[in-house]
Amino acid sequence: MGLYEQKTCIFTGLETQPIINDIDAIEYVIEINKKRHLIRLPYYATQWPVDDDFFKKNKNIFYALLYNNDWFEDENKYIDLDRLKALIASKVLPKTPEEKLENLFLKLFSYQKEDGDWIRFKTEYYDNLLWKLLYFKSLKELNYYVEVLDSKNLIEAKFNQTKDRSGLLENFRITFEGLSYVIKLREEGNKSNKCFVAMSFKPETVKIRTAIKEALEETGFIPVIIDEQNIDSDKTINDEIIANLKRCNFCISDFTYHSMGVYFESGFALGQSKKVIYTCRHDEFKNAHFDLRPLQHIIYETEEQLKNDLINKIEAWIK
Known about the structure:
The protein is built from eleven helices and eleven strands. The chain is an alpha/beta fold. It folds into three domains: 17-89, no CATH class; 97-187, Arc Repressor Mutant, subunit A (Orthogonal Bundle), CATH 1.10.10; 190-317, Rossmann fold (3-Layer(aba) Sandwich). A hairpin with a 6-residue loop joins strand 1 (17-18) and strand 2 (25-32).
């Protein structure tokens, strides 16, 4: 725990397991969603929830990132406000009302086992957790968006109208219109089940392509590779690349052999606020452009390692 004992996590309020040492800092472990996280903070971090506007404004986001296992990859480094700001800047978070509504709807749909199911939440889960993991600021905000889904006839909702819990969701089911809406979301943009694969098309990359496709298929995503697409005669390859990038959820960019097209495609994906997973074979990484080298890469020596590392990354960062 360094020289300062912190009994509750400043990000989540959960009980901590202090780490005892002689470091002039705050150190502890928390367990959230069955995963242990090491939290290392400067001694003055206890004041952030009190007097730092950035921290107070984004506390709900910190909790959601931890719960969704989308936290810092290197937890051995100390967390200061600059790292927290960089963390949030690197994430694709729901910002608009439409994005919040889509995230909530897909989460509700994920609980359905068969069409027409009525789903009932445990009170503790709905009241105290669901709104946090979906990046809402409060239970009240979650309830508002549930009511919007009901008014749009995407769900059929029944609300609890007791005196002390007025208007809270009691149970729901996805409507026929909602089932059609799921298909639309999964075929378009950041909620789709498609991944754009940017890579060199040299004959030497055939095994790399296979490893990437297998990793995507095993995690439930459809690989979109431009030289495997049927391009309409009235479209250029660049038109098709841009159109497919817009329709995809995220992008995998393999920089082995450093095709200029991969640089363009990964940059365009970032400009569309899509997540990009960077990969490169070990012997080729030394040739990477200096702007690219600081970014987190999956560096692999074999195609089997690439496949396994991609599966782990997708499960932790995308799904």
